Amino acid sequence: MLNLFKHELFSRRFAILGWGIGLALFGAMYVGIYPQMAEYLPTLGDIPLYQSMGMNMGSLEGFLASAVVQFLPIMLVIYVVISSTATLAGEEENGTLELIVTMPLARWQIVSIKALALSVAILLILTIASLGSTATFIIIQNMIETDISVLELFVAIMSSWPLLMAFLMIGLFLGAYLPARRTASMALTIFVIISYFGKILVISLPSLEVIKFLFLFTHFDTSPEIFSKGIQLEGALILLGVAAVFFVLALLSFERRDITSGLWPWQRANR
Amino acid sequence: MSNIILEASDLSFFYGTHRGIKDVNLQVTKGEVFGFLGPNGAGKTTALRLFMDVMRPTSGSAKIFGLDCREQGVQIRQNVGYLPGEFNLYPNMRAKDYLSMLASLRQTSPDNRFRNQLYERLDFDPSRKMRTYSRGNKQKIGLIAAFMNKPELLILDEPTGGLDPIMQHVVAELVNEAKNEGRTVIFSSHILPEVQAVCDRVGIIRQGRLVKTDSVHSLIEQQFKRFRIFFTSEPPIDAFSLNGVSEIARQDKWITLEIASNMVQFMQQAASYGIEEIESLPVTLDEIFMSLYSDEDPSVRAKDSHA
């Protein structure tokens, strides 16, 4: 089992490095340009488009929360969609799964190992990405006046992990439940887009307030206060709860899956 | 203790509304080499996947070592080596690492000496990344994965696919060695001489139904017999127009006939033309297979499936 986990993680090493370094550079770029942009940013705070998107670019806190803390996970969610749906449905389609499921492992063990490896991979990507931003922040710290500490910035970026975990487990479930990877991938992409734009729409359309809990991005704090207040525990717990529920659903779905058959769930035997 | 290693009872699987296999009943005993014969799409792979719990039966059940394939799959698979008919490998992983990983997933400690022997016998270099291997070499990885833990039961789906004739011979040797060690082998193939060479018993699967199970020898014996007869006087063209008798060649007084039934009547009739010489000609499994597949009514053959 440990060897399978090692393989699962090791096989993602290039993705971890690639996405990690890429996002580290992205974060570093935004943090690095702040000293040059600082004097113009207060004027951006009045732009309606930014306001409608819940972004407050008028301060360093607002700038970092909007450009770094919010956008890093939005980009990383692309990897989550690709990797989560590639894990069960994708491996089934490309023919690597059959030999693994015919080993003396229970199906729940296979899903758990893969889910754990993916969770660790995302944590590592996020850590590398956070280090890029925080390292640059250390460099620019003496050029700006700020109350934000390096640790607060690091924690704020890492706080998107529960959100990514929720999408990851939904993807894993869709990959186990739906017959083909492309179907799972499409469904998850639509859900991510609705979750993001749903959060923005709630700002302008208060009537959507009653269903805002369905938009997972609303449970992820990207306000300027994230640095002073720290991680919102309630939101993080909701997202981890969603992740846990969909992980269990993924286990149950994979347990019933007729691998290689390409059948929809309702076409499968009730055994 | 029961000698039955694998038992399928009314095993059926449907891909939605499409037939996979239907009402398959089968018993395979310990130490037997059992061949699943059938053309592409007949249901061979579906049956093997149901045994391995890759898919779950629509109805019926399968047992291996007396354990239910669905409920006790993990326990069963500890002692089963499986080669899928179609599989892919992790392109960036080295074959030796992949095989070590698979070996480590079993409770039994891996027999590295035997694995090295398999590398040698199959002329396989395991140090390369798996994306660099040819179709045949990938098949060797699957074969090594199936054989390396010396499992009690080997389930091999088209084991010689992509292999050259020398390697096909090595696979036949490995199967025979497993049999000699008292282990059981079930394999599917549409290469009939290969099945005829290594199998004790075969099951012929047609349109999802197991239409015949018998020993290779009995199957050949029972299906039809072929004779070449030299007559004293040349019989007329329609001399042997009996049910179950067909004339397939004629050269002067030499006539070649295939006889499936009415042997006594035929012999009486043949004797009236004077039999000077009679030769029994071999019938191959290919011909049996083709004769079963040319039968228009599968339900007639299905009655024999519990043989």
What does this structure look like?
Chain A is an all-alpha fold. Chain A has one domain (2-261). Chain A contains twelve helices and no strands. Chain A is globular. Chain B has 307 residues and is α/β, with parallel strands linked by helices. Chain B has two domains: 4-220, P-loop containing nucleotide triphosphate hydrolases (Rossmann fold, 3-Layer(aba) Sandwich); 225-282, Alpha-Beta Plaits, CATH 3.30.70. In chain B, the strands form three sheets. In chain B, strands 6-7-8-3-9-10 form a six-stranded mixed β-sheet, sandwiched between helices. In chain B, strands 2-1-4-5 form a four-stranded antiparallel β-sheet. A four-stranded antiparallel β-sheet of chain B has the order 12-13-11-14. The longest helix of chain B has 16 residues, at 165-180. The two termini of chain B are 23 Å apart. In chain B, 39% of the residues are buried. Residues 296-307 of chain B have low confidence and may be disordered. Chains A and B meet through helix 1 and helix 6 of A and helix 2 and helix 3 of B.
Order of helices and strands of chain B: EEEHEEHEHHHEHEHEEHEEEHEHH
Continuous helix count of chain A: 12
Number of domains of chain A: 1
The secondary-structure element order of chain A is: HHHHHHHHHHHH
- Mind telling me the CATH superfamily name of the largest domain in chain B? P-loop containing nucleotide triphosphate hydrolases
Summary?
The complex is a heterodimer of chains A (271) and B (307). By secondary structure, chain A is mainly α.
Question: How are the secondary structure elements laid out?
Answer:
The complex is a heterodimer of chains A (271) and B (307).
Chain A: H1 2-10, H2 13-37, H3 41-44, H4 48-52, H5 60-94, H6 97-101, H7 107-140, H8 150-158, H9 161-177, H10 181-204, H11 226-229, H12 233-256
Chain B: E1 4-15, E2 18-29, E3 33-37, H1 44-51, E4 59-64, E5 67-68, H2 73-77, E6 80-83, H3 95-104, H4 112-121, H5 135-147, E7 153-157, H6 165-180, E8 184-189, H7 192-198, E9 201-206, E10 209-215, H8 216-223, E11 225-231, E12 245-251, E13 254-259, H9 263-271, E14 275-281, H10 285-293, H11 298-302
Parallel strand pairs in B: 3-8, 3-9, 6-7, 7-8
Antiparallel strand pairs in B: 1-2, 1-4, 4-5, 9-10, 11-13, 11-14, 12-13
